[in-house]
Sequence to fold (227 residues):
Amino acid sequence: QKEVEQDPGPLSVPEGAIVSLNCTYSNSAFQYFMWYRQYSRKGPELLMYTYSSGNKEDGRFTAQVDKSSKYISLFIRDSQPSDSATYLCAMRGFQKLVFGTGTRLLVSP
Amino acid sequence: GAVVSQHPSWVICKSGTSVKIECRSLDFQATTMFWYRQFPKQSLMLMATSNEGSKATYEQGVEKDKFLINHASLTLSTLTVTSAHPEDSSFYICSARDRVGTEIQVQYFGPGTRLTVT
Fold:
């Protein structure tokens, strides 16, 4: 079993839709949770960063962490074609950052 | 803030030659830098972790004599692919962790370097 599981997609939605991206994990030592966005042939760009459980909102993006269920989510409101990219969840405890495989999101106009 | 740059963004070299990739943290000091490799449609694979002024720690299966890492200052790390072969062709991405501040656990990534070995 992988430490971090993420559906690779692709996830196709129409413009304006609410997008939900999710990851599950097995290591209870993970405390820091991040979401990165990666466009094709580019490096990952940090979107959201949360520590422990709870919600965090930044503009159209909301990150949720449920440590009891070992489940994290990223919600994108009013999705735009420019949001089309691969979204990587990442997390760590005291060791190295562990990534999900990434979910490819396609937002059609 | 928190910008990481890489140079070059792409490079083509002949088999048997060496290639150096530079990674710089532009607006923060990075005690720790990381080097990743990414194959098409796959996630990032950590190659090594480097701390300023000390030897890099390589992940299992990564040849330290082939992938030389130097972290000479708090803002610069270099990866040298020695005696490159076509199988070394890949997308190499560096990452840096801020030395101070409340978000010291966050890693920021460079734009990546695409290496093609012919």
